[in-house]
Amino acid sequence: MKHLLSIADLSTEEITSILDTAVSMHEVQHREVKKLPTLRGRTIINFFFEDSTRTRSSFEIAGKWLSADTINLTGKGTSVSKGESLRDTVMTVGAMGVDMIIVRHPASGAPQQIAEWVDCSVVNAGDGTHEHPSQALLDAYTMRHALGGLEGRHVAIVGDLTHSRVLRSNLLCLAKLGAQVTLVAPPTLMPSGIGAWAAADGFNLSYDLDAVLPTVDAVMMLRVQRERMSGGYFPTAKEYAVTYGLTPRRLGLLPEHAVICHPGPMNRGLEISADAADAARSLVLDQVSAGVAVRMSILYHLLAGEGNDQ
Amino acid sequence: MSPAPETGPGREVLTSDDISRALRRIAHEILEGNKGPEDLVLLGIPTRGAHLAHRLAEALRQVEGVDVPVGSLDITMYRDDLRRQPTRAVEPTHVPGDGVDGKVVVLVDDVLYSGRTVRSALDALADLGRPRTVRLAVLVDRGHRELPIRADYVGKNLPTAHAERVMVRLAEADGGDEGVRIAGPAEEER
């Protein structure tokens, strides 16, 4: 494993190995000294061309706790704002001899492109509406921990499917771990061609959240991405909240053991009510906590072993 | 390439009973050196060292009638050869409830060879706290140290050649057929 660009590149064994190692990393998180010498002398660049709180900070913390040197760059305040091309910018960074570039970019496919330009490892921290593999891995980690496993479990992914890179990575990841997935969204927020995709990959589609909720083990609410919406996908926010939001009433439809996930940041009152977000069965903060452990595991898998570096 | 000719699984140097006897003796030596079981904590290095630590705790219980805290200390993230090998699976680290601060920690491993595992374990231990004393117990000391490290308690000193392999099999880790065997380079299986 040299790059982490898409969940599609990972085997079930590799996913399981990343999740298992993350369990040990999670233990380190509760120690007084949260530092392992594993990646001493390695340099990791966080290159974020898009805003991010949890992904960027958790990759940075993960790198620091493994003793790597981590540097943060954003689109603003770098030569990008002077008009330098993406290729020149990342080649410049690569020429400094860094070991890994973690990249978030608004263009789908940018990390794949960068991986062809540079010699170091590249991690996709979210590219456009394509994929967000580390998020899917931490979601899987959190749900696996809460449910005791994902094989045969039923997970509903609800909301803005069209604009969600989290969805694509999660679909791939959950399928590889043996979970059954149902996607729920208004027709306007279903990606075009999803019917054929669902038939090919064996997941279900529904427009009726009330009918799906009583059958799930986990429900993942996706953020309504207003910043990517140029047209009218639904009449009003109020109507969306009533028809597709996880309202206090819908909380009562969930089976007793079912858990709630949200990749964050949450629009409280829109796709998820405050009651649901703060419920005991809500794993939102567990997801954040797992984010550091899973990303430590990702860095370990990409940088620690032989043959992973040039 | 055709497989190496069958030369058997090597020479047996410790039987299952020998291992039990060695652990019982080490239990006595630990109690003697520590003047009792006070403050003792056993930390085994996964995978076989962790199993041996539990057996050692059982031996201490039989000898002294006390439960000595047992844990495991994974050293994977502290190795100095990570970049020379394929990515290794990380095993669990479990520190008993009271931690290691001020304790007499006995590290337990199956084979002492270069000493690099023990060096890694000392680093890992330093991140967990500050023991009063750290001791080292091993089932087999096969020599060829690359670092100034020695064991306090040794089940068996086993002079070996560099090219030979020492294979420890324990019921907990490897199923039945326990024992320690030594094999030449052509017979290596590990």
TrEMBL record, chain A:
Catalytic activity: carbamoyl phosphate + L-aspartate = N-carbamoyl-L-aspartate + phosphate + H(+)
Domain Aspartate/ornithine carbamoyltransferase Asp/Orn-binding intervals: 152-302
Domain of life of the native organism: Bacteria
Keyword annotations from UniProtKB, A to Z: Pyrimidine biosynthesis, Transferase
Gene Ontology MF terms: amino acid binding; aspartate carbamoyltransferase activity
Any GO BP: amino acid metabolic process
Binding-site positions, L-aspartate: K82, R165, R223
Pathway: Pyrimidine metabolism; UMP biosynthesis via de novo pathway; (S)-dihydroorotate from bicarbonate: step 2/3
Signal peptide location: none
Keyword Transferase: yes
Family matches, as InterPro entries: Asp/Orn_carbamoyltranf_P-bd, Asp/Orn_carbamoylTrfase, Asp/Orn_carbamoylTrfase_sf, Asp_carbamoyltransf, Asp_carbamoyltransf_Asp/Orn-bd
A Pfam family recorded for this sequence: OTCace_N
Domain Aspartate/ornithine carbamoyltransferase carbamoyl-P binding, chain residue ranges per copy: 2-144
EC number(s) reported in the record: 2.1.3.2
Binding site for carbamoyl phosphate: R54, T55, R104, H132, Q135, G264, P265
Function per UniProt: Catalyzes the condensation of carbamoyl phosphate and aspartate to form carbamoyl aspartate and inorganic phosphate, the committed step in the de novo pyrimidine nucleotide biosynthesis pathway.
NCBIfam families on file: asp_carb_tr, PRK00856.1
Family membership noted in the UniProt record: Belongs to the aspartate/ornithine carbamoyltransferase superfamily. ATCase family.
Subunit composition and interactions: Heterododecamer (2C3:3R2) of six catalytic PyrB chains organized as two trimers (C3), and six regulatory PyrI chains organized as three dimers (R2).
Protein name: Aspartate carbamoyltransferase
Native source species: Ornithinimicrobium tianjinense
TrEMBL record, chain B:
Pfam families: Pribosyltran
SUPFAM superfamilies: PRTase-like
Domain of life: Bacteria
Major enzyme class: transferase
Short motif PRPP-binding, span: 105-117
EC number(s) given by UniProt: 2.4.2.9
Nucleotidyltransferase recorded as keyword: no
GO biological process, alphabetically ordered: regulation of DNA-templated transcription
Catalytic reactions of this protein: UMP + diphosphate = 5-phospho-alpha-D-ribose 1-diphosphate + uracil
Domain named Phosphoribosyltransferase: residues: 16-156
InterPro entries: PRTase-like (IPR029057), PRTase_dom (IPR000836), PyrR (IPR023050), PyrR_bifunctional (IPR050137)
Recorded family membership: Belongs to the purine/pyrimidine phosphoribosyltransferase family. PyrR subfamily.
NCBIfam families: PRK05205.1-3 (NF003547), PRK05205.1-5 (NF003549)
Its biological purpose: Also displays a weak uracil phosphoribosyltransferase activity which is not physiologically significant. Regulates the transcription of the pyrimidine nucleotide (pyr) operon in response to exogenous pyrimidines.
Name assigned to this protein: Bifunctional protein PyrR
Lineage: Bacteria, Bacillati, Actinomycetota, Actinomycetes, Micrococcales
